[in-house]
Design brief:
With about 475 residues, the chain is α/β, with parallel strands linked by helices. The protein has 15 helices and 17 strands. The strands form 2 sheets. Strands 1-8-17-16-15-14-13-12-9-10-11 form an 11-stranded mixed beta sheet, with helices on both faces. The termini are close together. The structure holds ligand NAX and adenosine-5'-diphosphate (ADP).
Length: about 475
């Protein structure tokens, strides 16, 4: 399991560890030795010339310990403090020990050369914008012909949001200490991390946010039921599609029947049926506009290929008054309160839809996707699936997951409809709503990843996505956690 921590949480963890007897000096030692191990995995250290640029905080302290390990191992390494000597107590103590071993340091970087430059300037304690001194250092570092390795967070990137200073370090690799920081998954900061590696420092993992995996024992993957019949795997209701958008309903229905749904009823416009039924003969059709019989379904999804009009709002309000879990997508997403809902609600907006729901700017949402989705989920008591690269799944208890499957092949109209269908099928037979949502988002992305292994991403049609569901489920069975 991989964990995500905000900057504040890291500080709290350090304080807690200290109060339990694990001091920061020891943690810094663990970080430095972990960094050294990772560096020796990634580089033949005897053939490299290292320069470590250390800042005044604990990120710089990690750099001091790393410098000591490299020197002790006989590697060519220069430690440099271009912005002044360390100010934190553990970093100062490590520098004392470093000097006591007879090792020296520099303070002027600009004439130094190296094949690998380590950015230990700023980490989780960064506040933006960068000082002019830091900016100049970053600009210089980015201009050097060397491999750039950042420790924890590339200097100039925010820890908790996607914000970056204009001179942010563009690392080739980032060695992330203890757990991922939100900016690893938020653009533009995410694009500055290069290849990330995680450095364990022996602290217990306590984060409420994790990175997606699918369990091989999950009902989404294991499709079991001795003496099963079509009722065993649930009956879903999909309220989707109009005369002008029958395809959305067809894509959602395909996603649903390809993911193990026992039965599916599509409530749609009569004019849309011929299109949907030609692709999904398994489905049944209903032309009502009300949802009086909602209790006879296992779960309900609404909104694909529907406008956000009064009729849709009326249906949503009826759905919120019944007790079966409801997925709201596309036209069913609107600014409204869910606080009086009698059912579990999952909203699946893309960033533009989320902006419409919250009244916020799309660009602000994108910079802070994890926080924004989480805040909404907690306040409204719903599950938010905020779609896009690194889809954010936020639960009403403040926990959540960042999904890492999927690729640009999905950036086409209709991909989200397939997700809604997969989600409906998994929700119908999963005892845990949280697991169903995580598994659905993961599997949807994995379909696109399997496609991309041998085929160009641009040629992936949303219509073909459901064809890859069997391969994605099989892959999970083989390598599930
Ligand atoms: N539990 C953990 O995860 C551990 C983390 N450690 C390291 O500790 C780091 C965090 O250390 P700190 O909290 O000391 O933070 P930093 O080392 O990131 O830096 C804080 C210092 O940088 C200055 N600064 C912040 N923003 C600046 C800006 N824009 N321009 C110029 N100066 C700026 C601050 O005034 C402060 O002096 C982590 O990133 C990690 O490398 C390790 O020491 C071991 C334990
Ligand atoms: N670059 C990307 N990487 C990973 N997933 C992506 C990417 N672009 C789009 N997706 C996924 O594709 C789907 C698109 O959904 P959405 O925008 O609602 O499309 P539509 O409403 O047209 O079906 C979402 O699940 C989203 O997470």
């Amino acid at each position: 399991m991989l964990y995500i921590y905000k900057g504040e949480e890291i500080k709290k963890i350090d304080r807690q560890a200290e109060s339990l007897g694990m001091d920061s000096f020891t943690l810094m030692e663990a970080a430095g030795s972990g960094l050294f191990r990772q560096l020796t995995d990634d580089f033949e250290t005897s053939k490299q010339c290292f320069l470590i640029l250390a800042g005044k905080g604990n990120n710089g302290g990690d750099g001091i310990v790393l410098a000591r390990y490299l020197k002790t191992a006989g590697a060519s390494c220069t430690l440099c403090f271009p912005a002044g000597l360390p100010k934190t107590e553990p970093a100062r103590r490590h520098l004392d020990y470093y000097e006591a071993l007879g090792y020296s340091y520099e303070t002027e970087p600009f004439n130094l050369t190296a094949t690998v430059m380590i950015d230990a300037l700023l980490g989780a304690g960064t506040s933006l914008p960068l000082s002019t001194e830091m900016k100049n250092l970053c600009v210089w570092l980015n201009s050097q012909k060397a491999e750039r390795v950042s420790i924890d967070v590339p200097t100039g990137a925010s820890t908790d949001t996607g914000n970056c200073d204009s001179s942010v370090i563009h690392a080739h690799k980032t060695y992330i200490v203890h757990g991922y920081k939100p900016s690893r998954f938020l653009y533009p900061a995410a694009s500055c991390y290069g290849e990330p590696s995680l450095i364990e420092i022996g602290l217990p993992q306590t984060a409420r946010w994790t990175i997606s995996t699918v369990s091989a024992t999950s009902p989404s993957v294991q499709f079991k039921g001795s003496n099963a019949h079509k009722g065993t795997f649930g009956h879903g209701l999909l309220i989707a599609g109009t005369k002008s958008m029958p395809g959305s309903a067809a894509l959602a229905a395909l996603g649903c029947v390809s993911s193990g749904a026992g039965k599916l009823t599509v409530q749609t416009a009569e004019e849309a049926v011929s299109v949907i039924a030609s692709h999904v003969p398994e489905a049944m059709y209903d032309f009502h506009t009300g949802v009086e019989d909602a209790h006879s379904f296992s779960a309900i999804a609404a909104g694909c290929g529907r406008p956000a009009d009064d009729a849709m709002e009326d249906i949503v309000q009826q759905l919120l008054q019944q007790e079966k879990p409801v997925i709201l997508d596309a036209g069913a997403l609107a600014p409204r309160s869910y606080k009086a809902a009698k059912c579990s609600v999952i909203v699946t907006p893309h960033p533009g839809e989320f902006a419409r729901m919250t009244g916020k700017q799309t660009k602000d949402i994108q910079l802070n996707r994890i926080q924004e989705a989480s805040q909404y989920a907690v306040e409204q008591g719903v599950t938010v699936v905020l779609k896009g690269e690194y889809t954010v799944i936020a639960f009403s208890d403040g926990s959540g997951v960042v999904n890492t499957t999927g690729n640009e092949g999905l950036s086409k109209g209709g991909s989200g409809d397939t997700l809604t269908g997969i989600l409906l099928a998994l929700l119908m037979r999963h005892s845990s709503l949280e697991e169903a949502v995580k598994d659905a988002v993961y599997l949807h992305g994995l379909c696109a990843d399997i496609w991309k292994r041998n085929r160009p991403a641009q040629a992936l049609r949303p219509f073909n996505l459901h064809d890859w569901i069997p391969a994605a489920i099989s892959e999970q069975k083989e390598r599930g956690d």
